[in-house]
Design a protein that fits this description.
single chain, binds magnesium ion, elongated, 361 residues, alpha+beta, five-stranded antiparallel beta sheet, ABC_transpr_MalK-like, Rossmann fold, NA-bd_OB-fold, binds adenosine-5'-triphosphate
Length: 361
Amino acid sequence: MAGLSLKSVKKRFGETEVIRGVDLDVSDGEFVVFVGPSGCGKSTLLRMIAGLESTSEGRIGIGGRDVTGEDPSKRGIAMVFQSYALYPHMTVAANMGFPLEMAKRPKDEIGRKVAEAAKILHLEPYLKRKPRELSGGQRQRVAIGRAIVRQPGVFLFDEPLSNLDAELRVQMRIEIARLHQQLGTTMIYVTHDQVEAMTLASRIVVLRAGRIEQVGAPLDLYENPDNSFVAGFIGSPRMNFIPATVDAVEDGKAVVSAPQAGLSGLAVAARGELPKPGAKVSLGIRPEHFVPAEGAAAALTGRVTLMERLGGVSYAHAQLGNGESVTVESRDARSFAAGEEARFGIDPARAFLFDEDGRRL
Ligand SMILES: Nc1ncnc2c1ncn2[C@@H]1O[C@H](COP(=O)(O)OP(=O)(O)OP(=O)(O)O)[C@@H](O)[C@H]1O
Ligand SMILES: [Mg+2]
């Protein structure tokens, strides 16, 4: 097993800098998830850790050893991709044993390690089958098995579940969590899936345009985002952002209003620096944090344009007087109706303020 350290890591493809100075320390046994918009550099960074891409600047350490210029096969890592890349003409057992075969390990050792991996992944009944005789989830388990037999110090996963249907994804997500518990090996995992990131990660790394925006435990990022980018990225459906103005500052709180959206006198505690009266801010409220308008400290007014009723939870999509749209979650399917003018209560303790540059206030 091994930890990982990235020091001022950069990657250029020709003139374009794609990874623009990343510093990160991962402890041995951690489960770290990379998230961020498409093209932000998640796969590139993972491939640099694996040694499949060279590093333009900075150092990469694995297990306390500098591996920056080292060959992928020497780094003690194993990578699992979105496409399973199994050999179609080989059996499951042969596919899983292939890396050891290549390393010229003795037959009995290969047999033993494949058997162990098959047991962990519940693949024992399928060892003699060919990949085409397996479901997508089973194929991905074989690809993971091929990584396990190498007993790597670090597992690297690049969106391993995105080819699977929704139900299989849930099942495989639980299997990967179990695998991490069982093996205790460091895992770095790239995903687009909010739920995967929130449930699997010990820490989430939010990337944007080749830089780290914030690193933290999933709930820390959800409850304490440093900026509007992270606030908007973590949480689903995403946080609502409403342009507002600071009317006054008192007792460490900013009193904000958004007259066209029917909002006034909302006093929000600032976490750091207080804004100046008159400042333009962005008020952030998650769909799940609205409260009934009666008795609320403040409320937004808008016209409900669409209701999504999912059974346990409903989402009201509303248009505010300032033209902004908001999404409001409710647990009562009958709470709002499309077409009606409604008020959405705000709990100041659940409201966030961001300055014009998106920094959390
Ligand atoms: N070999 C390459 N040559 C030039 N540019 C590249 C190369 N590989 C990737 N890029 C660029 O680097 C950027 C980051 O790509 P990367 O594949 O790391 O993104 P990603 O975060 O994994 O995105 P996605 O979520 O879509 O998989 C993109 O703008 C991409 O076009
Ligand atoms: Mg990618």
